[in-house]
Write a structure and sequence with these properties.
Number of strands: 0
Helix content: over 70%
Shape: globular
Order of helices and strands: HHHHHHHH
CATH class: Mainly Alpha
Largest sheet: none
CATH topology: Arp2/3 complex 21 kDa subunit ARPC3
CATH architecture: Orthogonal Bundle
Strand content: under 5%
Oligomer: single chain
Distance between the termini: 9 Å
Structural class: mainly alpha
């Protein structure tokens, strides 16, 4: 696909995936979706990388991240998209090529945790820390660690789901869509 497609097609495809990603992020204004929708938005960007190459995927990621910061007032969702969920689907398969598999898992885990910590630190600078941890008084001093542990578990589930979704897309969706484009 990527060798046959002209630059016009590639630019249009990246524009469409970036737009879909931003449209999904718009729903992050609903508080319950602050963490879910950045994860879903990155999947659209992954399709550009899968179809056209990682360079084009990162181009779509950059465009969608910039648009998110301009259009989406939910800064927390924007930061998590920028720091992790926007690019991780693109680099996931690269990391999985590392042998042995346990090293690949450690790298993925390190990338996730470094990204979350960086986003959280910036969030703490922008917002008041008490505002971020509001409602978690019952956990006391352990609130941040409980959230971090829950995030790590959610990452493992997300990583497994991404792998399954990639396989399903390549097996069932891609042949049907791109057969019509030929």
């Amino acid at each position: 696909m990527s060798k046959k497609a002209g630059n016009s097609f590639k630019i249009a495809y990246c524009g469409i995936t970036s737009a879909l990603s931003v449209i999904v992020m718009l729903a992050a204004l609903i508080p319950s979706f602050t963490y879910l929708l950045p994860a879903v938005s990155g999947i659209f960007i992954w399709t550009a990388a899968d179809q056209l190459g990682r360079k084009w995927g990162f181009l779509a990621y950059g465009a969608s991240a910039a648009l998110c910061f301009m259009l989406i007032p939910e800064i927390e969702a924007d930061l998590y998209y920028l720091f992790f969920f926007g690019y991780y689907p693109i680099v996931k398969e690269l990391i999985e090529r590392v042998k042995p598999k346990i090293l690949a898992f450690v790298i993925k885990f390190a990338v996730f945790n470094a990204s979350v910590v960086a986003a959280f630190q910036i969030l703490c600078q922008i917002m008041n820390l008490e505002e971020i941890l509001e409602g978690l008084e019952s956990f006391g001093d352990m609130a941040v660690y409980v959230l971090w542990g829950a995030a790590d578990i959610a990452f493992i589930v997300y990583d497994i789901c991404l792998g399954t979704l990639f396989m399903a897309f390549r097996k069932w969706v891609k042949p049907r869509i791109f057969k019509k484009l030929k």
